[in-house]
Structure formats: C-alpha cells, structure tokens
Amino acid sequence: MPDRTSVPFSRILVALSVAALALASSSQGAAEEDATLAEVIRDHMAERGATVQLAPTPQLARRYAVDLTGVVPTPEDVSACEGKTPEEMFDYFRAKAPMAHTRGDAPYVWANLIRDADHFLFSNSTQFAQVRHIRELEGQLRRVYAEGWSYAEFTRWALESQYFLARFPSGADRANAAFFLFLGRDSLASEVAVGRRWNGWVLREPLLPASAAEDDPDYHEHDYDPSVCGTPGVLCEAELWGVGGSTPAEAIDQMVSSTLFAEAVVDRYWERYVGSPLPGVDFPIIRRILVQGLRDHGYDVNWLVREIATSPAYTQEMMFR
Amino acid sequence: MRPAATWLLLPAVLLACDVSVGSGSGEPHEADDAAVPRPRRPDDEPAGGSDRSLRFYYGPMKAMSAESILYSVAAMTGHDFGSWDYTAPDPATRAFADNANGGPYYRHCRLLGGCMEHRIPLGRTSFVGTAYVLELERVAVEACYDREAFGMFPGRVAPGDGVRPVDVIDHQYVTAFGAAPTDQERDLSVAYFESHLASPEHGDISPLESAGRGHCRALLTTNRFLFY
Fold first, then answer.
1. Would an 8 Å CB–CB cutoff place B123 in contact with chain A?
2. pLDDT at A218 over 50
3. pLDDT over 70, % of chain A
4. Which of A55, A100, B209, B219 is deepest in the core (most CB within 10 A)?
C-alpha cells in the first residue's frame, strides 16, 4: 500500500489503471455478465431465503414523484399509479408536463438539474464568478436529460468550456477538478484517511478497511498507486493540463474512455436515486452490469436512471413507514 | 392564549403519524392495525428466513431535499414561499433577505439542508438537527396558518358548513402522504378535532378551519412527511 500522504498536493499524479480494470473485468464469467440488475438482486436475496417485495403503490408513487418531479404526488397521481408496474410508474412521472416550480422545464429534467447543481456548483472546488458559465453548463446538462445527449460528450464539452477553464486556470487545478467532478474522487483524498469525509463527499466504501480493499478490483485505491507506472496502458505522472494552456484532447479522450469515468457516472446516479453508495465491494457485478449497459447505450444517463430506479434496490418497501 | 388541551392532543396526532421529526426513534413501526402496511419480517419467512439487515432487504428511505419540502408544502397548502434560482446573479447580497427572489424561500432552504448557489459555497447537509427541525416547524406554521391558503381543505376552499372533520382529515392525509389514514390514525385525528372545536385556537376563523390548520401543521412536521 503506497503512502498516499506523500503524494504532493500541488502536483496531481494521475494514474488511470486501465489495464488493471480490464483484467478484472475479463475475470468475470460470461453468464454473470449477462445477468440483469434485477436478477442479481433477486438471486442474492433468494440465496438467503428472502424475496423481493414491491413497495405499496402509495409509497412507491411518492418515491417516484419526489425523485422525478421534486414534489409529493397528488391524489390523482397515486390513483393513476394503481396497478402499474414500476416501469410504468417511472414513465408516468418522467413524462410529467412542466409544473409551477420547474420554470418551464419538464419536472424530470428540473429535478436532475437541481442535483447536478449540487455536484457541479456546490463545493469549495467549484465556486464560480461567471453566471453565464453556469447557464451554459445548465443548458448542456438540459440536453443530457431532455434529449438523451451522451454524458461522455457532455463531459468533453465541459472540460473544454469556459465553465471549466476560466474557473480552474492552472493545470494542477484542472486535473484536480476533473478528478473531483468527473472521476468520482478528489485529489485531496490523499490527505484524508479512508472512511472519512472531505467537503461533504464520502470516500468510496467508507466502512471497508483499506487493507481489505487492496486486492479488490472495484476499489480504486490503487488507481493512485505510483508503483504501476510503466505498466502498459497506465498513464502515470502525466499532467493532464499544462499550466495556463488549453485542454489537451488526448487527455480528455483518455479520461472519458476510461472505465473509471463510466464507473463514476454509475456510482453518482446510483447514490442519487438509491440514497446510499453503490455496494461495489460486496457486489462488484452490479457496477459492471451498469457500466456495460451505460456504454452500450451510448452513455445515456436516462437509461441508467431508469435501470436503477426500476430495480429492486429502489422499488422495495422502506423499513419505516 | 392557546388552550392547554390543544397542546396535549398535538402529540397524539403526531403519534398517529409515526413519530415526530427529530424524535430519533430507531425502532421499526409497530402499528397493531392490520391495515397498516409493514415490511415483511424475518418471522414471516419460511425456515432459514431472511435477515433484516440483508442488503436490499428494504428499499431506500431518504429525506426530502429542501427544495422538495418547500415546493411540496407550497403545492399542498397553496401557500407561496417564493422561489430560488441558483443562477441568480448576486445571491450573496440577498441571501437572507426575505424578499430574495420573491419570498422567504431561500432562508428556509438554507436551513433545511442547503440551497445551492454559486457565490457562497456552504455544502449541502442531510443532517436533521435542531435548526432543521425548528425550520421545518416554521415552514409548516407559515404555510398552514396562511389565511389566504386553503389547499389543506377539501376542494382547496375554506371549509363550509357541509364539511366534516373526517373530510379534512382524509384530504390532508392523502395530499401529504399519498394514502388515506388508517382507522387508528383517523380516530386520533378526530379526537384532536373534537377537542380543538370545543376550544378553538384561533378566533378570527371558523373553529373547523382553525382545527384543520393545526392538523395540517402536525402532519407536515412528521417523519412520515419528511422521508420518502
């Protein structure tokens, strides 16, 4: 285990261990890869004598309504959901017309934009002075939800936009922010013990001892491991952005095409809708299924959201009524 | 002066809606009413049954965001909190002004877990603490006692002579929780109404309206409303 505190803060050392992740993926059985998210969860529960229990309609309708429209359902909404499957309920609320609070957007788009604002605007790393940059960002994200625009393409746009370049003028800042915003982690993680919070963000699998994570391919502790430098396919100690320079297309390509990027997207939307971190260590297959699906669907996060929000992880009855 | 009986009955109504916000109960809901839905328990399973701590055994339980609370309360009651636009050009100078973007929305939003804005980075919190609970109470009071708002009554109009307490109770349960009250919950709410009607809290409105507004306040400050 490398001493992470020794990583210089001023110089972000990026190590995308593509080879290691590819190796991990290839070790999974073909049958496992073909399973759906719902099947994995059902099998997991069945092996332990439990069954999947759909939440009562009023409860599930309320969950969909708050998540997809931002407000609790009306009595008419609840009545309309009687007898509907989770997929039909999801589609019902997603198709809602603009409401008073959504300022002209479809509620589904509005609800996601609000949460994206939390992510992109709401941290010490990402405070902005230029309102027009925020509006540009919002406009591009609107395309992601309203038109199904590829999240990978959105990320390419964002990394080359003034939203990003003007706010983060130095190469180190840009690499730091790119990790924080798009790869699911922040470079300051090297200064924070595993399991602690920094700036409101939970490091991956906070309850997992670091010693147990070392051998797990789904734990990205080793993404920062300088000892893998020199391994083919691994980018090490490369400055993604030159100081004061433009964003190199090669670096963006490498980022957006990495498994780490797709996993970060999956993790973020899983937590957004399920409300807790994706249990990647216990269930690595779940992340693999969703990552593969996201790629197969051209990085359409609307597919990802529907897949997560119609799975048993989302539709089961809550513990407290 | 608020009658003492009103205060004694409010906890009963809160109890009917599970537990009040911030009570910190760690035990599952244990209603005796057979009509109350409850998660399947390990005892329900065949031999070698499931473990309540099993991953995915229960679905998510999340607290509503500040925006969802405020817009939901506004939609249910008809009260207007104003709004907040996180792309507003100069939020710092208007942060705690009640007229920021046309109402107290931003002030409530900040204390209910955060309202994003781009000038003052204050991280959003999910911590349901004292300030949070007090602010939720203020939100409920502001909305439920707004004399111009009638969304908490059937037909979204002032309750007339033909409206019964049970009509108001059922309407408020359905709009707040998406489900009608159980018999036990309805009985407790009716008891609250009977007590309140005998000694109304507010003299400038009808006794039924006064009781209905107090009941609205009780429902909107429950865990059942906050979590989804």
1. yes
2. no
3. 63
4. B219
Return the closest-CA partner of residue B210 out of B218, B219, B201, B221: B201
- Decide if B55 and A318 are in contact by the 8 Å CB cutoff: no
Cα–Cα nearest to A147, from A309, A299, A272, A307: A299
Q: What is the pLDDT of residues B48-65, one digit of tens each?
A: 444 556 888 889 999 998
- Give the tens place of pLDDT for each residue, B8-28: 444 444 444 444 444 333 344
Asked if residue A13 lies in contact with residue A7, where contact means CB atoms within 8 angstroms, the answer is: yes
Q: Residue A66 corresponds to which amino acid?
A: V
DSSP secondary structure letter of residue B20: B
In chain B, which among 184-203 make CB contacts under 8 A with chain A? Answer: none
Residues B138-151: tens digit of each pLDDT: 999 999 999 999 99
Residue A53 makes CB contacts below 8 A (sequence gap 6+) with A316, A317, B39, B40
Q: Could you give the 3-state DSSP secondary structure of residue B31?
A: coil
Q: How many CB pairs under 8 A join A and B?
A: 169
Mutate to test the interface with A, among B118, B172, B184 (most CBs of A within 10 A): B118
- What DSSP designation does A238 have? E
The position carrying tokens 């020794």 is A6
Q: Is the pLDDT of residue A133 over 60?
A: yes
Q: Which helix (H) or strand (E) holds A235?
A: strand A234-238
pLDDT at B126 over 60: yes
Of A266, A263, A258, A248, nearest to A159 (Cα)? A248
CA gap B132, B113 in Å, rounded: 7
Alpha-carbon distance of A64 to B24, in angstroms, equals: 25
**Are residues A92 and B87 in contact, defined by beta-carbon separation less than 8 angstroms?**
no
- DSSP conformation letters of B109-157: HHHTT----SSS---------HHHHHHHHHHHHHHHT-TT--TTSGGGS
Quick count: other Cβ atoms within 10 Å of Cβ A19?
A: 13
The alpha-carbon gap from A302 to the nearest alpha carbon of chain B, in Å, equals: 20
Q: Two tokens at A224?
A: 């920062």
B28: three-class secondary structure by DSSP: coil
For residues A93-119, average pLDDT: 93
pLDDT the model gives residue A108:
98
Neighbours of B164 (CB within 10 A): 13
Asked whether B31 and B25 are in contact (CB, 8 A), the reply is no
